Amino acid sequence: MSNPSVSIALTGSGGAGVMTAGQMLLTAAARAGCYGLMSRSLGPQIRGGESAALLRLSTAPVDGPDDIFDLLLAFDWGNIDRFAAELPLNENSVVIYDPGQGPVPEVVREPGPRLVQVPLKEIAKGIPGGRENMVGLGLITTLIGLDAASLRQVIEERLGRKGAEAVDTSWQAVEAGAEAATVDGLPRLDQASPAAPGSRWQISGNDAVGLGALRGGVRFVAAYPITPATEILEWMAVNLPKVGGALVQCEDELASVCMALGGSYAGVPSMTATAGPGLALMTEAIGLGVASETPVVIANVMRGGPSTGIPTKSEQSDLNIACYGLHGDAPHIVTAPTSIADCVFTAQWTVYLAEALQCPAILLSDQAMGQAQAVIEKPAEVAFIGRRKVARPADLENYQRYRITADGISPVALPGMPGGQHTADGLEHAPSGTPSTQAAHHQEQLDKRRRKLDRFDYGDHWAIRAGDPEAELALITFGSLTGAARDAVTRCAEAGLPVRLIAPRLLLPVQVERLEAALAGATKLLIVEQNHEAQLRHLLAGHIRLPAVVDSLNRAGPLTIRPGEIVSALTTLAA
Amino acid sequence: MSNPSVSIALTGSGGAGVMTAGQMLLTAAARAGCYGLMSRSLGPQIRGGESAALLRLSTAPVDGPDDIFDLLLAFDWGNIDRFAAELPLNENSVVIYDPGQGPVPEVVREPGPRLVQVPLKEIAKGIPGGRENMVGLGLITTLIGLDAASLRQVIEERLGRKGAEAVDTSWQAVEAGAEAATVDGLPRLDQASPAAPGSRWQISGNDAVGLGALRGGVRFVAAYPITPATEILEWMAVNLPKVGGALVQCEDELASVCMALGGSYAGVPSMTATAGPGLALMTEAIGLGVASETPVVIANVMRGGPSTGIPTKSEQSDLNIACYGLHGDAPHIVTAPTSIADCVFTAQWTVYLAEALQCPAILLSDQAMGQAQAVIEKPAEVAFIGRRKVARPADLENYQRYRITADGISPVALPGMPGGQHTADGLEHAPSGTPSTQAAHHQEQLDKRRRKLDRFDYGDHWAIRAGDPEAELALITFGSLTGAARDAVTRCAEAGLPVRLIAPRLLLPVQVERLEAALAGATKLLIVEQNHEAQLRHLLAGHIRLPAVVDSLNRAGPLTIRPGEIVSALTTLAA
Amino acid sequence: MSAIDADTAAPVLKASDYKSDVKPVWCPGCGDFSVLSAITKALAELGIPPHEAVVASGIGCSSRIPAYTTVYGFHSVHGRALPVASGIKLARPELTVLAAGGDGDGFSIGGNHFIHACRRNVDMTYIVMDNAVYGMTKGQASPTTEPDWTASKLTPDGPGISAFQPLEMALSAGAQFIARGFTANPNTLAHLICQAIRHPGFSLVQVLSPCITYRPEQRAYKNRVHQHFGHPEPATDRREAFARLMDDDGFSLGVLYKGSQPVYQPAPAPSATPEEVAAQFAIC
Amino acid sequence: MSAIDADTAAPVLKASDYKSDVKPVWCPGCGDFSVLSAITKALAELGIPPHEAVVASGIGCSSRIPAYTTVYGFHSVHGRALPVASGIKLARPELTVLAAGGDGDGFSIGGNHFIHACRRNVDMTYIVMDNAVYGMTKGQASPTTEPDWTASKLTPDGPGISAFQPLEMALSAGAQFIARGFTANPNTLAHLICQAIRHPGFSLVQVLSPCITYRPEQRAYKNRVHQHFGHPEPATDRREAFARLMDDDGFSLGVLYKGSQPVYQPAPAPSATPEEVAAQFAIC
Ligand SMILES: Cc1ncc(C[n+]2csc(CCOP(=O)(O)OP(=O)(O)O)c2C)c(N)n1
Ligand SMILES: Cc1ncc(C[n+]2csc(CCOP(=O)(O)OP(=O)(O)O)c2C)c(N)n1
Ligand code: SF4
Ligand code: SF4
Ligand SMILES: [Mg+2]
Ligand SMILES: [Mg+2]
Description:
The complex is a heterotetramer, with 2 copies of chain A and 2 copies of chain C.
Chain A: E1 5-13, H1 18-31, E2 35-42, E3 50-58, E4 71-74, H2 80-83, E5 94-97, H3 106-109, E6 114-117, H4 120-125, H5 132-144, H6 148-159, H7 164-179, E7 200-204, H8 205-215, E8 220-223, H9 230-239, E9 246-249, H10 253-265, E10 270-274, H11 276-292, E11 296-302, H12 319-324, E12 333-335, H13 340-357, E13 360-366, H14 367-370, E14 373-377, E15 423-425, H15 439-455, E16 463-467, E17 473-476, H16 482-494, E18 499-504, E19 506-508, H17 512-519, E20 524-529, H18 535-543, E21 549-554, H19 563-574
Parallel strand pairs in A: 1-4, 4-5, 5-6, 8-9, 8-10, 10-11, 11-13, 12-13, 17-18, 17-20, 20-21
Antiparallel strand pairs in A: 1-3, 2-3, 2-14, 7-14, 12-19, 16-18
Helix pairs in contact in A: 1-5, 1-6, 5-7, 6-7, 8-9, 8-13, 10-11, 16-19
Chain C: H1 32-46, E1 53-57, E2 72-75, H2 81-91, E3 96-102, H3 103-109, H4 111-120, E4 125-130, H5 166-173, E5 177-182, H6 186-198, E6 203-208, H7 221-224, E7 226-227, H8 238-246, E8 252-258, H9 274-278
Parallel strand pairs in C: 1-2, 1-3, 3-4, 4-6, 5-6, 7-8
Antiparallel strand pairs in C: 5-8
Helix pairs in contact in C: 1-6, 3-4, 4-5
The complex binds thiamine diphosphate (2 copies), iron/sulfur cluster (2 copies) and magnesium ion (MG) (2 copies).
């Protein structure tokens, strides 16, 4: 059954406290047993400026946004034109605004929402020390039927250390807001029963990648900050030392990826995180990882491109560079988590693959996932075995670092192992590691480096699948759009249109047989992705047999692709 | 008619003077009215070490190597195992060797060539000051029937400044070699009549790229040396100043591409040249060129990859990074010359495209073309008009740098033009150039940057075509393999197998309609390329409808793909 | 630099002629506002017409500056302001070229270009708005950050490595005009920038430019700065300049050093057509 | 660095135990042969078992050195020897880590890592085989090349910019052990390398290592080198070190400077399991 949920946008500039209110609302909902998702839209100003907290709350898990916002609470209209397109409304939406902030702008009025005035600022002024965002919180929780006790609890936790008075003031503001909640007809959250303590998490995609990598064994991180990946690095800087690891801030991305390669060569699973511009700087050294067979994980959190592009907004346009951006014939691994929850799993799996295959692995997250917070089921602890194949004593006799093996994987000696000395090399080499310009050596090493990726058993993890696996209509997407695609498939099924959904977690090596098997019998295919050039479509078309009819639903950021659009595209394609 | 030619390999280590002899042979042949090609195979040693001069001489133009060497003249056998695979022989081949250098190695003996002993060293010793390479030259010119007067002329030019005695000594050595030329049955050059003075050129692919770029208007070059691209830069360093241009040696490739962007922004057509590792370092800034719409040309001379790979050997494995290596949605231009002669034209055309489209353009050459010398018809002087669309006075009123236009091209103001001030930006921007995070601005700029590439009329230059355009069997290749492909098509035609050959000069944007039209009616397609992953095949499959049956003939470097192999593959595919 | 010839009869230009109407993304109170003012004042004082000047920058809060001026600008990529600026100047020597950006942009990711630009000595002026932090990415340590600054989550125990010394590095690398300014007084800073622009060759102006958002304690810079590196006149001898730097507390303001190495500017005199050049390949 | 504890009863190691049987690609007579000898002698003298040492390098003639030793090696990409070496040392502090390469690798493309490695002060030794040329790519100017060296086609009028001063840069950037050696006497050089390895923190050894192919005139280095930077003992004070450098002709040999800044080595003490760490995300 499609997901009954309520979607709320809070907007305001500078001091309105929109983000705090959004965070508290999400946590309160979580406390009350709901699931939820909150992302942010920020203006270009470094501090202050317009901002929006975009929430979707539900009693069922939510992986992505809904089609429209049920409620827009505008503390003010600062620069709304710049991001109104990110806040779809329709005639069922309710817009609550402060009449003291001027008239409702045309872009908001245009889709025909119900407009409701609430003098938020004035109400707040009525309470000494009261803040308008707390008034707003009271208003919203009441309107959507969220348990007041959970909100109270969140306020106590947040403000407790400021003393009882601060809590009281806020609570008065909340109650004043609740009293102003006289609109009806808004969707309300079903009564949820609070989950068992610890059984659910509140986490961002970026933190989740950090945790997954840590679970996967990463103990050395080399870092250079970049939006929207910095939080992965910051989370690891704080948390890695707790498990005996270390993070080093580097002078640039050339250094960070090379330090990670050094750490990895020394035997410690290593990673870095970056975004498009940084990834571009890293490709030469990632190629070194391929040639020297040194594992390394690069988490790339995608943002608007090309060039510096739109650093704060989401897009899925680094697929090309991730898959094809290395010079020479350089097979490697590219993965993409399919939701915030899945960031934990996919990051852990990516570390496992890099280590097992002695190969660089690029994990493609994006801003929409990385900088959003979700309330999710606690991710299962998965135990991947089979790490890096370290040389055993027998291997160390006449040790050959790049020995030709059936599965393409050569046992690696780590510094400190007597007899395992070798030189890891980015020059083409004989099996011993000695540089060679010979055609035969080149051929056998190229074969081996491809073979190890092709022969590996990726199991069921290669993709998320949903819907009807026999449906004639197929849908392929990846990354943060998977949630919307899943919603769309559910809605289509309810409307009697069966669809099979395939969201590959493993983008490279392209899983030719698996994809073709998953598509077998499908006559039509829709490929959904958030970029301008339909990069996934060209990647797939370049490698696999696609159904006779293929259509694309692709759009660059920052506007995400919503379930309803996918439903429309599927319906049109089916007709 | 297929090309009647003679192929000669000269091998020897260190002081044998193999390269000098090869050069002189090529020039002598040119003087005598022949065409020719000479490439080199070098060992990994910096100086000395084994080397081979690989020649093909003919009275008709030659664009690529033949299947086998008719003659192998071995001054010695130093490290022959390392590169014997690059010297295909068969039972019709003649191997002339110096018996004083030890027995004929098994790898040379194995294909069953005729073995002929000539005591080169001893003969040379018989002439005071005589050198064995001159003996070898005399031997060869006599065997293949090359006019002695041409060789004499070359020797005089080369050694003239050392005095008459030096010339005489060499000439005695040549004559002694000629006397030893008692083998028969070798192919001989047809009697050629010397061409009109100045009507033919002897040029390397790298120099040809430099010249083409200079003809195209490049006047600023930022350089960082890398094998096998350095000669482009060295040629330009010496020759640019003559036409009022300048070359600057930079600290690294990040600097060189950015300096070129700076020079170009200032209004001077600019370029750099590099190879795979350097290209990898440049992709971030190339993306800046895309977003800021700053033209720049990057000549990338491909070598064995991945990573440092095999710097001295040829490969065509940078196609992926050239086409897909930028982050974000970053449409740009990728071209590839189809022969040494075509390097002049393609480089000039590439500058023209970059300037006309205000977009970075990557020219893909390779070591086999770049470091080889050819004797060619003097390339026609082509006049490309329509350079960079510079703002006129009307444009400068309320000037908008990134104005939305029908053809996607916006008039550009250059520093110094009053009223044209703007900030070129890699951040997404409004038409004015002011940074913007708005979806609508992003969409319209992305559309525009793609539109300008799609709407442009590339004319007939987009590809070289040969063979029978109606043939059911099609052949696609690119770059330095075009010569071999052309030979193969000629041979197939002689054997009654019609083939249509398409060698795209314009690889990106992929010419979807033109390629599909060129392939219309073809039922089978062979794609020939010198890399391990069949990069061209995947690029084409990702973008165009290919014939029902597609086969690949692809192999990584350093072994080139020879006409006979292509003929076999075509014949098999046709069956 | 024909544009600044005194005898050009150009209309009198005011600082405001160099300020665009694009609203800066900067936080209110950011030091970079003063740098913007100072640059516009300097250009006005030198009388350089806006269309004959170019500012190239990298990425960061400070690197946003070109769009806030009315001169030609190139907002390039992180760390590459100097090569871009060098390319502009080398291709069009008659333009007045400035490079501008932050301490992270210039000394971290751009450190290699910094030292080689100092050596290369192309005639341009590099203005580094040094706030000892990465402002744009929300407050991480930069090379000039103190080793014990613990306010960033990326280095919760402090970066732990000694701070980069921009002036010392510039001097070692071969820069020929080296100065330090501060944002408190845009007129003084403008004067420094004028001198830097006038000096032939590569000029560095390190500007202490507080980040009031991530380094609010830098408001106290105003109490720490002082005139001169121990002497009112710039050193013209490297030995002397090093000696003065050894006593520098990082808050001395003014010109440290003025050298006179030759400017790097290839000035080819065209003597041939491309076809004359091509004749070298002819077989005759 | 447990491996070099004097009281470890390890078998006595000879220099030859550190030389592999891979034949160098170097030209006969290249200075790098001596550097290879010196490194092997130094490791033997220090008694570091081959499997407990790592040499990381970039790309160039000199950067080929790891494969010619019997220790662990990483022949990485052009300019990145130092970050690779730093990663190795930071991840595995018990290893003895050397970085090695050429002047182009280290001071041109690798210049940024060089200055930041000097600052970061990770405990490793960087050996730069300085021949003032790009040997591997057949003879172009490097940062240390004289401005008037006209033998390269890439800079036919000479590079025209003043030469990079490795020791001065290292001192400004914060390096804690700075020395210059020469290839004439591998024993002397080995001794210098021993000191560098023993010194805690980042050590730079610039080795004048003639390229007899592209800079045959460097054979005359042997007539120009001399002992000491004006004083037999290393300076321990930066002011003094700068003063000595001002009198350096580029051919003074020995240790210029020894400092005592703390070594950078994060040493986390694990206190939690990943699942304990994960508990922070639980909603309770
Ligand atoms: C290649 C690359 N890496 C990282 C970033 C992210 N980034 C943007 S600005 C910046 C640092 C800016 O610091 P600084 O130069 O000191 O400027 P400030 O914001 O302090 O003025 C970073 C790391 C980027 N844009 N590009
Ligand atoms: C990214 C990149 N750019 C350029 C090159 C080409 N290259 C290889 S070695 C080298 C210079 C080597 O000079 P140096 O470090 O001084 O070493 P030497 O050969 O003199 O010992 C260059 C430019 C490369 N391999 N990679
Ligand atoms: S974050 Fe700091 S540097 Fe950036 S604009 Fe704000 S005050 Fe200025
Ligand atoms: S070219 Fe120079 S540096 Fe390279 S191996 Fe030969 S002598 Fe040594
Ligand atoms: Mg800063
Ligand atoms: Mg060198």
